[in-house]
Amino acid sequence: MADLSSLSNQLDTKKSTCRAIIETPKGCRNKFDYDPESSLFMLGGLLPEGMMFPFDFGFVPSTRGEDGDPLDILVLMDAPAHVGCLIDVRIIGIITAEQTEDGKTEANDRLLGVAIHSYDRENLESIGDVSKTLLDQLESFFISYNKQRGKKFKVTGTGGPKKALRFLKDGMKAYVAERKKS
């Protein structure tokens, strides 16, 4: 079976689109993580009662972040996808953040995308089009989620599609550089 984290992300910078793979669906308490060795999704944790993922959460294939994992993405769409679903998304922005665990702090930014096949959110072109209330709630979710896992998550800012695409391109370069080493 192919390593899903190595699939082409089919980035189209003119349309601000790419592909993402969902690890954890909206409304789920189970946190799933992709395991490239087995090409399966493993249960990575469980959220406390009453807490769930606000939207589908996954990664952009053929990218690498500072933490060594593919870049994270939160995908806004009309209904939850399923674990392992490949989705075409429009990149609308980025939530920049620092994550601290065991005294070590590293960047752990989150891309924000909208499913191409969305009626409810088809007009969202930029993070600026997302209500401040929803953005505040997303930031609060990530802070609470990480606190439950013994980590500190600090939002350091947000950016629109241009900043998000630069981040995505850097993640693609890091992926290629990593592949050349091995």
How does this structure look, described?
The protein has helices at residues 132-148, 161-181, and strands at 17-24, 30-35, 40-46, 56-60, 71-76, 86-101, 104-107, 110-115, 152-159. It has a five-stranded mixed beta barrel with strand order 1-4-5-8-6. It is of the alpha+beta class and 182 residues long. The chain has a single domain, classed as Alpha-Beta Complex (Inorganic Pyrophosphatase). It starts with 16 loop residues before the first strand and ends with a helix. The model has no long low-confidence stretch (mean pLDDT 96). The chain is globular, with a radius of gyration of 15 Å. It contains two helices and nine strands, in the order ββββββββαβα.
Q: Total number of helical segments?
A: 2
List unreliable stretches of 5+ residues.
none
Major beta sheet, strand line-up? 1-4-5-8-6
Total domain count: 1
| CATH fold title | Inorganic Pyrophosphatase
Order of helices and strands: EEEEEEEEHEH
In angstroms, what is the radius of gyration?
A: 15 Å
What class, by secondary structure content?
A: alpha+beta
- Under the CATH scheme, the architecture is Alpha-Beta Complex
Annotate the secondary structure layout.
Elements: E1 17-24, E2 30-35, E3 40-46, E4 56-60, E5 71-76, E6 86-101, E7 104-107, E8 110-115, H1 132-148, E9 152-159, H2 161-181
Parallel strand pairs: 5-8
Antiparallel strand pairs: 1-4, 1-6, 2-3, 4-5, 6-7, 6-8, 6-9
